[in-house]
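Render this sequence as a predicted structure.
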Amino acid sequence: MAKGRCKGVVGFADVTFNFSITYRSPALTGNYYSDYQLFLYQTITEHREQGLTFDAIAEWLNMEGYLTVRGKKFRGAHVHSILKKRLAKEELLNRVYPPVWSEFSMEVVDKTILMSDFEFEK
């Protein structure tokens, strides 16, 4: 209950504020990388910075005894896919969504009539 002023008269009134706000955050969704997936991504990135092709990186990973997450030997397409998916995920996580506000409304219910004494004839 709030005390309000209506037409110069001070009385009691209920004031209700109505609005909603919607927040979106892609960081709240799951689908996180395992330690092995993160290791593969970092290794591939380092080799790409050195100028190696996807096929050359796949060959190096196979020679070192690493397997894909599903337990297979690497091919250039696997290496490309790991890099592409991680970059897309980072872009999604860094995306900023502005909050969405609804229209604002305020309702005031004057309680002076309800709080006054009524005299009824018997």
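Summary. The beta strands are 2-6, 9-18, 21-22, 100-101, 105-110. The chain has four helices and five strands.
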